[in-house]
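Good morning,

Attaching, inline, the backbone tokens for the sequence recovery test we're adding to the shared suite. The designed sequence is right after.
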């Protein structure tokens, strides 16, 4: 219940040359979270497996609840879900070039720890933002369908 796309760019420094677009839970209903090859720490929610049962602290469950509710009445939910997936893809496409420039400058100045911290923080912030949006969609879907699907 995850998918990824690996983007490999050999002309860039190793820390930013590899970029993994990670999607947990249903890949067609979840955002793609950018994770650079230079990342040394994932958001804490990735330290827990969600397959053994319900666990709010696991990355899987930060997306699964909204996704499952959407599947029950896909015709009503798909537009909101797709618009949020695309919103975060657009966000990444807008922000990543600037992050990469900043990291490359830090690396050239010999400030590797700062560069790695910037990558770790970006991934953590991006995951937190998407998880918050999926929580909002979960609430929205319950509002729409509380009397029945």
């Amino acid at each position: 219940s995850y998918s990824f796309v690996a983007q490999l760019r050999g002309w860039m420094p190793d820390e930013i040359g590899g970029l993994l677009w990670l999607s947990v839970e249903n890949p067609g209903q979840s955002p793609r979270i950018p994770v650079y090859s230079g990342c040394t720490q994932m958001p804490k929610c990735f330290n827990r497996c969600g397959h053994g049962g319900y666990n709010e602290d696991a990355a899987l469950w930060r997306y699964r609840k909204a996704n499952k509710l959407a599947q029950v009445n896909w015709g009503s939910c798909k537009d909101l879900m797709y618009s949020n997936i695309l919103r975060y893809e657009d966000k990444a496409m807008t922000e990543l070039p600037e992050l990469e420039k900043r990291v490359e400058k830090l690396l050239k100045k010999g400030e590797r720890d700062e560069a790695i911290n910037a990558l770790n923080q970006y991934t953590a912030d991006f995951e937190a933002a998407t998880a918050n949006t999926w929580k909002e969609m979960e609430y929205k879907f319950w509002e729409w369908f509380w009397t029945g699907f």
